[in-house]
Amino acid sequence: MILLAVMLPAVLLSSCTEDEGREVMGEKAVRLSRDTVAYDHTGQFVTIESSVDWSISLSYAGTQDGWAKVSPESGSGSVNNVMLTYSANGSGESREVALNVSFSDGELVTVTLVQTGDPNASGGDDPDPDPDDPWPGLESDPYQSGWMELPAVEDEEGRAFIYHTAEVDGQQKRNYSMLYDAAGRIALWVAYPLCGDYIGSGRTDAWGYDPKIPDEYEPLLNHGWPERGFDRGHQIPSGSRNANTAMNRQTFYYTNMTAQVSRFNQGLWANLENRVRGFVSVCDTLYVVTGPIFDSGEPERWTEDNAGNPVAVPDGYFKAVLSYSVSSSAYYSVAFVYDNEEYSRSNPTASDMCSVSEVEAITGFTFFNNLPQSVARSVKNQCEPERWGL
Predict the structure, then answer these.
(1) Beta strands in 230-315 (DSSP E)
(2) Are 5 and 153 in contact (CB under 8 A)?
């Protein structure tokens, strides 16, 4: 699925006449975040209020079908973790999809989404998409396909797993994945593969909202926080995705940014990113996970985005690295941990290194979840500075 696990903070529901996209029957309710969206809008959250089991089916008006998906398709009780995703509308005509929510006590509630047509299109419907492949070129489930960089993901309220792909030489290529926290307006980790094919030159500076997350849950960051000493710190660096313009643009999504101390971001952290890119020369593929650290487990420091919304400030950062070489079929790992503060030095040292297992203990995440179980423990317990040139 485009989005496998999404949970957002509970939305206070007022009367039926005040809420868009909400239908109520007895004690049950179904609510869309938006019941009418623009042609290029591609996803939103759905809230279901219920005390019984439920399931969702989709039905389409008109000749176009197969352009929307919902996940999960069934559940029990009241939830905020239903994600409705849909492709951009390339036709000049609007289209509709109905969400039919069937409850185990026999009741049925239906809400309808309208997606407007592209004003730049010549008009008329696009040909019917392939019902077996409504998202051409995209992996249906990155966990099933074994993406090595991915941590384990568990459903948790307020968090969303998403991933991005971009077109390269006519094919969709995976860019990066993240676990996004709506309350903190911050990605709790960003994971990506790295090899020479991703690295080039250039920078788009295409700052903007992430189309996979509704704008209201993202920080507005047209500019950083220079008066507070924070940069818009990339989690996946622009420099690790500059061989392709489309991929580089995606690194400038606001969801990829954190409030990072400026001199740290531009000094020691930037040099660590350069060093990690250098690791590519001694393996076939590198897998990287970067994320914030909160000392108490939850954000305690906050700043504001350009619209005055609260944004969590990390107490520190981690970067976990896994290398793989085809010739030896060998995996090696290491991790780096830093405070989010100014450093007097500009280069990483062996003292900054620790094992991936140690970072798992700090963050509570399980990294490189697709590592073969036979080697996972030993690989993630490694901390060999000399192997990494430190």
Answers:
(1) 230-234, 257-261, 285-293, 301-304, 310-313
(2) yes
Distance in angstroms (rounded) separating the CA atoms of residues 129 and 243: 31
Query: Whole-angstrom Cα distance, residue 10 to residue 158?
Result: 8
258-274 pLDDT per residue, tens: 999 999 999 999 999 99
Q: Cβ distance 231 to 21 under 8 Å?
A: no
Q: Structural domain boundaries of the chain?
A: 3-115, 159-388
CA distance 59 to 126: 18
Is the pTM here over 0.90, yes or no? no
Strands 28-32 and 43-49: antiparallel
How does pLDDT run across 289-346, given as a tens digit for each residue?
A: 999 999 999 999 999 999 999 999 999 999 999 999 988 889 999 999 999 999 999 9
112 DSSP β-pair partners? 98
194: amino acid identity, one letter: L
CATH number for the region 159-388 comes to: 3.40.570.10
What's the one-letter identity of residue 37? Answer: V
Q: Is the peptide bond before 151 cis (omega within 30 degrees of 0)?
A: no
Q: Residue 128 — very low, low, confident or very high, per pLDDT cuts 50/70/90?
A: very low
What whole-number distance in Å separates Cα of residue 32 and Cα of residue 96? Answer: 13
d(CA 374, CA 387): 22
Q: Are 161 and 143 in contact (CB under 8 A)?
A: no
Distances, alpha carbon 337 to alpha carbons 148, 194, 289, 357, 388, in Å? 21, 20, 12, 12, 15
Q: Render the burial of 171-191: b for 16+ CB within 10 Å, e for the rest.
A: eebbbbbbbbbbebbbbbbbb
What is d(CA 22, CA 16) in angstroms, rounded to the nearest whole number? 7
Phi, psi of 4 (to 5 degrees): -90, -40
* CATH fold for domain 3-115: Immunoglobulin-like (2.60.40)
Whether 40 contacts 50, CB under 8 Å:
no
Residue 124 phi/psi, 5-degree rounding, is 85, 160
